[in-house]
Amino acid sequence: MSTPHVTLNNGITMPQLGFGVWQVEDDEAERAVKVALETGYRSIDTARIYDNEAGTGRALRASGVPREELFVTTKLWNSDQGYDSTLRAFDASMERLGLERLDLYLMHWPMPSRDLYLDTWRAFEKIYADGRVRAIGVSNFTVPALTRLLDEGEVVPAINQIELHPDLQQSELRAFHREHGIHTEAWSPLGQGKGLLDEPLLRRIGDAHGRTPAQVVLRWHLQIGNVVIPKSVTPSRIAENFDVFGFELTPEDMAAIGEMDKGNRLGPDPATFDLM
Ligand code: NAD
């Protein structure tokens, strides 16, 4: 089974459902990515700070899946922001991944207080112009940070990867993205598996479709147009999270989940987060 793809603002396509490897140690990431690729996932989301680019790269190379079928994302860590340091950090990530060319490079956080994201973005534009990455984007960017990037940068980010799940639906950012041709990618799409998946509403909707709460949540993301990258290291859940194309939520289901928005963040506030 293959996943639907979305078309990014520069014309390239990306699987709408991918696999995330945050908080997975290098060797375990290698095993989990192997299982994910065997299951059918073709898009993998890692980052410098996850410390598993090497394991991810080993699994990608060993899989035998043709490179052009894979979509690989990694992210620049905060302490590498700045023009020259970004160019060096990109080379180092590519070395660890063992790839010639990346599909998507994201700036992990804007860190507005440090005021380096424009210089950093210029380095992203250079890497893109040099053909070393097929698309560039950002993560955790707020409307003010995106507005400045759009005003002063050359390339419109293809993606903004943000915390997004039924408890934090990010309607303002999603509308801004739509207006500017930026695709929304949801991190922690399952709410990190914490309280969200115990919500009786999700269980009720799932029961009506013969599906689990996690599948209902992933289906909700897909139907509102998000790119999603759920994480699991458990093979049965890796399979369960991929098996979301054989059913559809009704308009009533979608409206009921839409009512769940509490504006609750699990992660830090991007307006102030500046951990290096
Ligand atoms: P997630 O919402 O994908 O939840 C993952 C957790 O949910 C798992 O550890 C497991 O405990 C549980 N789970 C997974 N599948 C399940 C299932 N079918 N049934 C029940 N429980 C299940 O959380 P995440 O890992 O935080 O986010 C996904 C990916 O997003 C990350 O791996 C990473 O790639 C990316 N991410 C990016 C940022 C960023 O700042 N850009 C931040 C966090 C995460």
Question: What's this model, at a glance?
Answer:
By secondary structure, the protein is α/β, with parallel strands linked by helices. It has helices at about 25-40, 55-60, 85-95, 115-130, 145-150, 170-180, 200-210, 215-225, 235-240, 250-260, and strands at about 5, 15, 20, 45, 70-75, 100-105, 135-140, 160-165, 185, 225-230. Bound molecules: nicotinamide-adenine-dinucleotide.
Series of secondary-structure elements, N-terminal to C-terminal: EEEHEHEHEHEHEHEHHEHH
The level-1 CATH class: Alpha Beta
Separate helix tally? 10
Total domain units: 1
Low-confidence stretches: none
Largest sheet: 8 strands, parallel
Coarse morphology: globular
Ligands present = nicotinamide-adenine-dinucleotide
Query: Quick one: CATH superfamily?
Result: NADP-dependent oxidoreductase domain
CATH topology: TIM Barrel
Strand element count: 10
The fraction of residues in strands falls at: 15-25%
Strand order of the largest sheet: 3-4-5-6-7-8-9-10
Instruction: State the distance separating the first and last CA atoms.
Output: 40 Å
| Radius of gyration, taken over Cα atoms and rounded to an integer in Å | 18 Å
If you average the pLDDT, what whole number results? 98
As a percent range, the share of helical residues equals: 25-40%
| Second CATH tier, the architecture | Alpha-Beta Barrel
Structural class: alpha/beta
